[in-house]
Amino acid sequence: AGESSIEDVDLEIPEVYRYHSEGYDDYGWGCVYRGTQTILRALGKRVPPLPELTCAMGTGDEWLRNPAAGCSWIEPHDVAEYFRRFVAECGDLRLVNVATRDGANLLNVRA
């Protein structure tokens, strides 16, 4: 098995995507999608609009035609899969649960 290394990664977050960003009513289901957009922005990557992101993550865009129905939930591991599939140079990154508040640093763990 390969060795793992952990590095501190400081991210400047120029924009935080929240519920109702872009004018869409995603309250109650949009948090992980919005977190994904925020991470993409912080990494300087293209940020897809919410309908494009939900389609790429396999949950479709039916919520546009029927807002009351909402959209399917996704989890953080779905974000890791999205990054592997659609974000150049992120193929070997994985998301980990890190319990730290040390200077608000994120940890980058590589297998």
Short description:
With 111 residues, this protein is of the alpha+beta class.
What descriptive keywords fit this protein?
alpha+beta, two-stranded antiparallel sheet, 4 helices
Describe the structure.
The chain has 111 residues and is α+β, with helices and mostly antiparallel strands. The chain is 31% helix and 9% strand. It has four helices and two strands; from the N terminus they run βααααβ. The chain has a two-stranded antiparallel ribbon. The chain is globular, with a radius of gyration of 15 Å. It starts with a strand and ends with a strand. The model has no long low-confidence stretch (mean pLDDT 79).
DSSP summary, beta strand count: 2
Distance between the terminal alpha carbons, to the nearest Å? 9 Å
How would you sum up the major sheet? 2 strands, antiparallel
Radius of gyration: 15 Å
Coarse shape:
globular
In round numbers, the mean pLDDT is: 79
- Low-pLDDT runs of 5+ residues are none
Share of helix among residues?
Answer: 25-40%
Strand content: 5-15%
Helical run tally: 4
**In sequence order, what are the helices and strands, one letter per element?**
EHHHHE
SSE diagram, text form:
Blueprint: E1 5-9, H1 31-42, H2 50-56, H3 62-65, H4 76-86, E2 106-110
Antiparallel strand pairs: 1-2
